[in-house]
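Supplementary Text 2. Reproducibility record for the structural model of the 394-residue chain.

All settings were left at their defaults, and a single model was retained for analysis rather than an ensemble. We include the record here because the model underlies the residue-level annotations in Supplementary Table 4.
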Amino acid sequence: MVKAMTIIQLHKKENSFGCSCGSKSINLTLPVAPRPFSRIRFAGPDAEARAIPPFGALKWLEENIQQGAEIARVELDGPGDPLADIESTFETLQLLGRKYPDLKLSLATLGLNGEKYARELMAAGVTAITLLVDAADREVAEKLYAWIRPGKKTVPLAQAAAMLVEEQPLAAKAFKEAGCEVTIRTTVYPGINDDQVAKIARVMAGCGAEAFRLVPCSGVASEEDQLLSPPDRETMQRLAEIAAKYLETTIAPAREHHLGVDCPSVNGACETPAMQGLKPSKTRPNIAVVSMGGMEVDLHLGQAYQVLIYGPREDGLTCLLGTRPVPEPGSGSSRWQELAKSLPDCFAILAASAGESSRRILGEQGIAVLITDGEVEGTIDLLYNGTRKGKCKK
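Retained model, structure tokens:
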């Protein structure tokens, strides 16, 4: 049945909580999934996933609530895919549901294994699903994805692409039958999948989806260094009018800031869900940085003997405030517990790399470990976006 045409334009800037500014309640995105199912060709180079562990996700939520945020819904998201590491996802849902039983829970996923886990996820408290569908035909999926890995073993792209476009409608049906709200999110890549929008909307409407969200891709280069420009407003409007024949359609803006983490399963392009919710607070206004020379984030957390502490001075300028020692290696997990105790005022640590143990333990203490190889000052600017009053001049 063809639905009445409804197009909703979203122009509000999204803040660091992953929500629309200006509303009383927010949708909080928790980056809990470390492993992706796929990689879009039009994305930056591979990087270590920035995901927080289940206890870190709970503490993240608690801190937002303590700051007075009114949470309408929590969505589990990337940098990977929540269904690619299902045990961790169920653990996170259990922790959140036990502490906040009335909280609305959702997740964003490519949909692989969705048919298998739909009812279990619903029983675990999930009431809404954002299904990331960027292609309806195998040939288009092959052009769009560099690889698709449904399991832990590599599958030939043609075979994996066929599996993906076959399983996504099944996942949509399964989630709908389980009682979840299903929203389809499609990232538009001009010349690659823009002619797929109508078919995606039609097929997914037939599977029970209730809403359609169109997102323009960012201006990124392919693996062959061919620049892919974002679609213009007229193109997005035209595609929205086509999709709105089948589903209520929203045109959403591409996110403005990211650190370049490889997370192709989120919005179909490189995004940084780990940044959605990272924000200095009254209790944790500072950030720790691991750097060899102070200019670049260029050191493994395990190799660091000290961290640089950045944060706001009394006049509001964000500057280097000092250094703190990192406990000596050799004490196992207690090393990271001690480090967490020494950083009660820090909401995150920037490092070039970090082990799973350190990320898990620090995350449990409410300190996110962000992996990047960027320049220190530029990355600090990004993390304090919207809160800085200027740069510290020496």
